[in-house]
Amino acid sequence: MKAFLITSLLAAVASAIPMPAPAPAPMPAPPGIPSKSTAQSQLAALTVKAAYDDGNYKRDKFPHWNTVSGACNTREYVLKRDGVNVVTNSACSATSGTWYSPFDGATWTAASDVDIDHMVPLKNAWISGANNWTSTKRTQFANDISTPQLWAVTDDVNQAKGDKSPDKWKPPLTSFYCTYAKSWVTVKYSYGLSITSAEKSALTSMLNTC
C-alpha cells in the first residue's frame, strides 16, 4: 500500500511539471552559409578597393531565371526550396504554400508577395569586378543555387534594398544581421569580388552580432 501511494504521488508530481515545448522546425534556407569564423577569414581575404562604375551596367547582362530542371526556372526553384508545403502546377508555378522572409520576419501565403533577392545585387557585383566576367559567369552568378546568393523575401523589402551594399542598407531584422553578413561575404569570396572599406566595416560589425 505504501509503495502504491509513493508511486501515485510521484506520478502526480511528474504530471504537474510543465514539459518544455518542442523546438520549432528550422526554416528552409539557401545552402552554403558559412560559420562565423569562416566568414571572418573570407572577409579578411577579400580585396578592398573603391567600387568602379563604368556606366555600362544593364540587368540583362546577367541572364537570370534560367531553367533549373523540367519546367522550373530559378525563381520557381527557390520558391519551392525556401517555402513550406509549396504546391506547384504543371508549369512549376507555385499555387499555394507559405514563405517566411528572414529579412523582415514576415510570412506570406501568396507567391506574388515574394521576390527572389540576389544577396549580392547584380549591379553591386558589376561595380566590384563582374564587369570583366564572361556572360557565362554572369549567368551562373545570377542563377546560383549552390551558395547563399538567392533568398525568398518580402517584395517591398527587396525593392528597398535595391543594389545597396551593407554599409548603405541592412535588413530590418537585426537578428538576421549575422546570417546576412556571412552570406554576403561568402558570395563575394566565392566569386572573387572586391569590397569597399565602408562595406568591410559594416560587414565586420554585423559579423560581431553572431
Automatic annotation (TrEMBL):
Transmembrane segment boundaries: none
Keywords: Signal
Record-linked Pfam families: GmrSD_C
Signal peptide (residue range): 1-16
Record flagged with keyword Signal: yes
Record domain GmrSD restriction endonucleases C-terminal: where: 109-204
Protein's recorded name: GmrSD restriction endonucleases C-terminal domain-containing protein
Organism: Remersonia thermophila
